[in-house]
Amino acid sequence: MSWDWEFAIQTVLPQLLEAFFKVTLVVTVVSSIGAAILGLIWAIGFRSLPYVPMKVLTWVLDFIRMTPLPVQLLFLYYTFSNLSPMQVGLIVFSIHYSTYMAESYRAGIESIPKGQWEGSTALSLPVTRTWRAVILPQALRATLPSLGNWAIAMFKDTPFLIFISVLEMVTVARNIGGTTFSYVEPFTIAGLIFLAASYPTAILMRRLEKRLAY
Amino acid sequence: MRDFIDSFIAAAPQLWDGTVVTIILSLGGAAVALVVATVLGLAANSRFIIVRTLVRIIVEFFRGTSLVVQMFFLFYVLPQMGVEWDSYTTGIVALGLNYGAYGSEVVRGSLNAVPKGQWETTTALSMSWPLKMRRVIWPQAWALMLPGFNNLLIMLIKGSALAGFILLQDLTFVTDQLRRTLDTFTAFGLGMVIYFLISLACSYTLRWMETRAQRRLGLKETKVARTDKALAGGGTV
Description:
By secondary structure, chain A is an all-alpha fold. Helix content of chain A is 83%, strand content 0%. In chain B, α7 runs antiparallel to α8 (184-216).
């Protein structure tokens, strides 16, 4: 076994980068936005729903959070055969990570002092306005870095798409290895691309966390 | 209905085998992860900057490159380097290293969260490092670590679903197979419920350990203390 620079740079790198930009990045960005929106809906649901539906929602989210992504991917893939694997991936990643983000939002919303709610009531603000103008602007500030960290976690989970044969980066790396019998270069470069993309983002989130802290 | 029950009974042994593989991988991975997390977490607070830097690099490397990449690397590349591991070892080591790196941050954070006075007191009493860790710092940090470990353990169990790609017939693999004999909904429903129950059991165990750790520190009332209070007529029980 030896490292072949020519093979690594001329064959492997372009293919992996193509998969990175076409699939990995698209899934991460689109599903992060999807998960952030869904997560917010769940979090507001925790607060606004009556007791029983709230408990049901909690159990459903716990169930999704505690079952593995691959099983969920395969399940939706076989159940909705009219959807493309990529669409299934986007939906599953959005839903799965929304359950985590909901917890982050919840923590952010709970950190808002009770006086803010009472103040809104005293001013007889409508519920929607209370959320939009008073609670969320403050809560989101505390939640943002945490959402970013979940997006990074999601990014590193995108290789699970291999289960429904979406050609994301690691699947491509594995295929290159399968045809050329040299696995070192593809997997090393795939790992380095992950590291190069996630580490700076993680540092950015840490900075953001410090800056946004009260 | 009869057909369904028959096919379910036929599927049960397979499901059981898959569950066992998943549990072996999860517990093995968790054990390795705990060791890795403890070693790296303690070393992260080392006096020597070289050690600290080295730990930082290792931790960021294993956190930054995806679990899937690491597992495939161990599975496909190591044999080319002449290291032959069976699938179980590969899976357990991959899960252990990846989640161990995450866990080391939990260990480091918890050690730092132990009040400074506790550290200073052990110095004042001129306790040796092993003694102060064993009797003062670790028990307090341990109680703080368990919630973090709880989350990581669930993630590790979910990560073990990757085992099918390193030729292990784990619960995910079996579920995917059963889709052919049972229908999709039943097969995946069963698979997910089993995963959920495993995760729930682990989660409750760790929460129980957390309560126990806190009681030992006197942070939560023990049963005895509560009974004493009741007998003394104080408080409401």
